[in-house]
Specification:
This protein has one domain. The protein has 11 helices and 4 strands. With 296 residues, it is mostly helical. Helix 2 runs parallel beside helix 6. The radius of gyration is 19 Å and the shape is globular.
């Protein structure tokens, strides 16, 4: 029983760490193709104003979702999210396909998600969306603005979870309407997110799965891509990709931050970004110092 209990705690931690790792590896793999497409989120990648704009967009989206949920207009939120998802998937597929096939496949993927929102479909789409968004923002912002962004988002996440708690309300609302903004790791092999949502097969308080917000994977990965794209330091072979020291440090720091996060009490919601962003920033700084990259 002790072994089963320990295993039940370790497996979801390993699974979610693998999700983050896959997002980072896929983002790095997408980086050359997306950069060749000349798509950029910001015209001036070195401007610190990019971080402020990003924060304002997050605040506006959060306010929109909270208001829509309060007015019982979850279908509006779902519609906007599905449009965002199809865009994210398209950016990934467009790196390898011409526009028409990329759009057709993107539409097909999102249609599958809409018709059959099972946990493994949501996870697959989540990987594509996270990789596309992370790579796109990573090549659009230099490391310094990204560091500012990660710091601001870590503070915001802590305030919104522990103080105002509006992020907790947002997360519950998103899960209730089954919006594809989460990675899902089932507790049991027979678990169905499509049928049961958050609930498990036991008591009402038992969750059927572990959940990780897509933002927790995207935000630190933006630093990984930015460091690898903008910093002119030696690259090393990793997963068949060229990864420099600062980017590798940010990756390892993210995993360390996730490990620390997994040790926090699980009886109440935890803010993930202070741990993940903090680890990514620390790893980036260490990797930069070791590789001789200029931080500023």
């Amino acid at each position: 029983m002790f072994f089963e209990t320990r295993l039940g705690r370790i497996v979801p931690i390993v699974a979610m760490t693998l999700f983050v790792m896959l997002v980072q590896v896929l983002s790095l793999a997408l980086m050359p193709s997306l950069s060749a497409s000349e798509y950029r989120v910001f015209e001036n990648p070195e401007s610190a104003a990019n971080s402020v704009i990003y924060i304002l967009l997050i605040l506006a989206f959060t306010l929109f979702v909270l208001m829509a949920l309060k007015l019982k207009k979850g279908w509006v939120v779902s519609g906007v999210i599905f449009l965002a998802v199809i865009s994210g998937v398209y950016y990934v597929l467009f790196a390898f396909l011409s526009p028409l096939p990329a759009f057709a496949l993107s539409f097909g993927v999102v249609l599958l998600l809409y018709m059959f929102p099972e946990w493994y479909v949501i996870d697959l789409v989540g990987l594509l969306v996270c990789a596309g968004v992370s790579a796109l923002f990573g090549i659009s912002m230099e490391p310094l603005p990204v560091l500012l962004l990660l710091t601001m988002l870590a503070v915001y996440d802590a305030i919104s979870v522990y103080k105002t708690r509006h992020m907790v309300t947002l997360a519950k609302g998103v899960m209730e309407i089954k919006a594809p903004l989460l990675f899902i790791v089932p507790r049991r092999i027979d678990y169905s997110f499509r049928k049961k949502g958050m609930k498990g097969s036991g008591s009402d308080d038992e969750r059927g799965a572990y959940f990780l917000g897509l933002g927790d994977a995207i935000i630190p990965t933006v630093l990984v891509v930015s460091a690898n794209w903008f910093l002119s330091v030696p690259h090393y072979g990793l997963f068949g990709l060229g990864v420099n020291g600062p980017a590798l440090g940010a990756m390892l720091g993210t995993y360390l931050g996730f490990l620390v996060l997994s040790m926090t009490p699980r009886d109440k919601p935890q803010a993930g970004l202070p741990f993940l962003n903090g680890g990514a920033i620390l790893g980036f700084v260490m990797g930069s110092l070791i590789s001789g990259a200029a931080l500023f």
